[in-house]
């Protein structure tokens, strides 16, 4: 694994808290972050792995595929591995093998006008990953099983590609990614907060204004924009190590042609780094979130291939 590189001058991103992150050697490949805290095979040879009384023979590439799919819930098969001119059919064969082992599920799909195959993790696949997780891991990378929003598949299938673009840019700055948090995980935490607030509202005699202030404070603490009584959530949040060793975040959003009206305007004001799934790139765009942090117009919106 490549040694940690020297960090250049700071770039975009917000740093939260004062606790320094544990220094670790990291790979230059943005996909390796998902296996960083797993005691599972990393080399090219297949090794025996046991999970729930089942045994599998998996290589490092197999484990990385499972972890990447689990981290994003759904990933196009064509995005999972870079083609090798010496073995051009190997990625497809390896994916078929994982499917035959019952660790992933594949679904034919059409994104735009392109036929593709979407890959999701099965319960057995997640058991392999969770069984290999090191105990006591802080800020754990979550792994998800199956499809939960069929109507949003075309959109959700682009989130991984947006992550790769953002992560490669961070790697060029020498700021390694530590984990990815999906929108649903952030919303789940928000719902837990709301439920706790609702339980105590009557006891505290809280007014609507006080409740709105509590929500605004929660949004600020979680580095999310709050506007007109609503918290804006990105498609994914990248947590990475800033040049000073502290945790920093970049929120990313995939923008599709269906983003219109108030929804599109709110996302434009959010301060998220946006990636267009289709259409022309917008130049000279600057957005500012509630935090007041300006976004570099060169990075405010990028075009996904």
Number of helices: 8
Which runs of at least 5 residues are low in confidence (pLDDT < 50)? Answer: 1-25, 279-300
Main pleated sheet:
6 strands, mixed
Mean pLDDT figure: 79
Radius of gyration: 20 Å
The end-to-end span amounts to: 29 Å
Shape: globular
- What is the β-strand count? 13
Helical residues, percent: 25-40%
Structural class, by secondary structure, is alpha+beta
Spell out the helices and strands N to C.
EEEHEHEEHHHEHHEEEEHEE
- Estimate what percentage of residues fall within beta strands: 15-25%
Keywords:
305 residues, alpha+beta, six-stranded mixed sheet, three-stranded antiparallel sheet, 13 strands, 31% helix, globular
How do you describe this structure in short?
With about 300 residues, the protein is α+β, with helices and mostly antiparallel strands. The protein is about 30% helix and about 20% strand.
């Amino acid at each position: 694994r490549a040694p940690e590189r020297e960090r250049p001058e700071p770039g975009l991103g917000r740093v939260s808290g004062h606790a320094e992150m544990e220094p670790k050697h990291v790979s230059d490949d943005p996909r390796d972050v998902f296996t960083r805290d797993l005691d599972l095979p990393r080399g090219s040879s297949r090794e025996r792995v046991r999970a729930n009384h089942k045994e599998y023979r998996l290589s490092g590439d197999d484990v990385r595929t499972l972890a990447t799919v689990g981290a994003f819930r759904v990933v196009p098969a064509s995005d999972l591995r870079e083609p090798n001119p010496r073995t051009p059919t190997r990625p497809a064969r390896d994916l078929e093998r994982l499917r035959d082992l019952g660790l992933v599920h594949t679904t034919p799909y059409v994104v735009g006008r392109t036929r593709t195959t979407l890959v999701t993790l099965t319960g057995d696949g997640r058991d392999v990953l969770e069984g290999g997780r090191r105990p006591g891991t802080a800020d754990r990378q979550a792994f998800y099983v199956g499809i939960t929003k069929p109507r949003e598949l075309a959109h959700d299938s682009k989130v991984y590609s947006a992550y790769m673009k953002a992560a490669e840019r961070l790697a060029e700055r020498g700021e390694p990614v530590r984990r990815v948090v999906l929108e649903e995980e952030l919303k789940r935490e928000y719902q837990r907060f709301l439920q706790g607030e609702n339980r105590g509202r009557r006891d505290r005699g809280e007014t609507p204004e006080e409740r709105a202030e509590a929500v605004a404070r929660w949004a600020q603490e979680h580095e999310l924009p709050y506007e007109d009584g609503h918290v804006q959530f990105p498609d994914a949040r990248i947590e990475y190590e800033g040049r000073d060793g502290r945790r920093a975040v970049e929120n990313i959003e995939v923008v599709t042609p269906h983003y219109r009206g108030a929804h599109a305007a709110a996302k434009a004001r959010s301060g998220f780094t946006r990636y267009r799934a289709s259409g022309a790139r917008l130049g000279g765009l600057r957005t500012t979130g509630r935090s007041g942090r300006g976004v570099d117009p060169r990075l405010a919106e990028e075009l996904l291939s």
